[in-house]
Protein: Histidine kinase
Organism: Paractinoplanes tereljensis
Amino acid sequence: MSRVAGEPEADHGGPQRDPPSLGLTPLSRIRLDELLREMLDRVGDVVASRERLRSLLNAVVVIGGDLELRTVLQRIVAAACGLAGARYAALGIVGSDRQLSDFITHGIDEDLHAAIGELPHGRGVLGLLISDPSAVRMPDITQHPRSHGFPPNHPPMHSFLGVPIRIRDQVFGNLYLSEKQGAAEFTEDDEEIVVALAAAAGVAIDNARLFALATRRERWVTAAAEITAALLGKVRRSEALHLIARRAREVADADLVMVLLYDDAAGQFTIEAVAGPGTVTPGLLGAVLAAADTTFVDAVTRPQRMLLDDLRGSAPWPVPMPDGPAMVAPLGGSDVLHGVLIVGHGAENDARDDDVVLLSSFADQAVLALERAQAQDERELLVVLADRERIARDLHDVVIQRLFATGMELQSTVPHTTRPEVAKRINHAVDALDETIRDIRRSIFELRTPVGASLRTELHDIVEAATEVLGFRPVLDTSGPVDSAVPDDVVPQIVAVLREALANVARHAKASTVRVTVRAAGDQITVIVEDNGVGTDPALARGGLVNLQDRASDLGGTFEVRRGEGGGTVLHWRVPLTG
């Protein structure tokens, strides 16, 4: 019977043949098998290493595929957890105080986070990498001498691997891995691959930080350009400062921004502009702070930019302030310091040195706003003063001279008048012209008074304030160069004297009319307060009247109280203008 092609021959019961020995003894065949198995194991290790390298490359691509810093950090933690086969992973960022300022975790859900509570600060085993930034690997973290245990609700952890992350030879933070899956502890290969990941992570973090810095710089430059554009038009100081505060708050994503102007003579800050929550803005605007009581006074006296750890405790603020850090940039220009720009962040935010530098550049725009607004105000003031000087000159050289001439002509006609009633009317007209001339001269003095705060203005304000208390408005008569001739150290004394005199009238006089006369003539200034009240006994002077006497004596002047000719009381206070 024929055999089908390819079919093996049938076994007819003959003797079995052994496979060919290739000339090897049994002992040599055993050794060959061992070598084959070792080769297969090494091939498996090579394949595994190749896969881990591929995973490492994929992880590097993943963590470098985003420039948002928080996202990059989260990807680094997840990649480290996958590469080392860890159940839990974390990245602790080391702050300037050499403690953990932030802690990004992987493998722990939000509920467990909340149950654990406060995040670690970098003490115990976690602090090993802070004090000595080098890789740490241990089989059981709980057995280490520096182990402080875990807080309540914390998952159990034993095997541990820690690797520092460096950026330009500076430690940015540390990678912490725990609970090796499928093995009792992390291997040397795990350590090497996580070290390699940490090196790539440092580059990715640096790129993300540089991108964030460039983005912030662009925002500050855009805001500065907006401020500059706004200054090209007509601007007022208050409007410019409020615009600066609003834009600084938007760009810095801050809780509160304030512009404080500094008065060197008084040694105090005045809050001129505020951008922040409605709960603090009304109480802050216009508030005055003693510079010596603030921790940021050096920013304006040296000057220098500063980074405050606690805004709330930096000054005696009139309202409760938000807690957290703050940046302070001096406002100065033309060798004259104007104040400070303060940007306050919330407690959950952080202020960086880079941000302080950017804020300083932005603060220069605030200086331009101050200088340009001041220049505009000065130009407008010069226009007003020039116009007032022209009016005063015309009144003096033309109007008064014509009135004086008219009065002289009227007086010259009196001897030629035969009717007494005509002469009387002419004399009344001359007296009216004299009074008009005195009023015009008073107006000339006021026109030549500097615009803004002046002694005349303060006297008017005091009289207006006394109107409500007295029930009627006192008559105020000022004459002579009250604003230009009175020394600065005498002005507060005059103001205090008038307030005290009007207060005495309100308390004791029961008057219905009061006349206040302030006259600067020769080398002295005189304040006279007359009322039609019940009068007073000069011998019984006490309290406020004694204070008036002391003020006059301190300035080398005189003070007297007497009864008025028609009743009431006359206060007569006089001090020299020189010496």
Q: What stands out?
A: The CA atoms of residues 395 and 518 lie 23 Å apart.
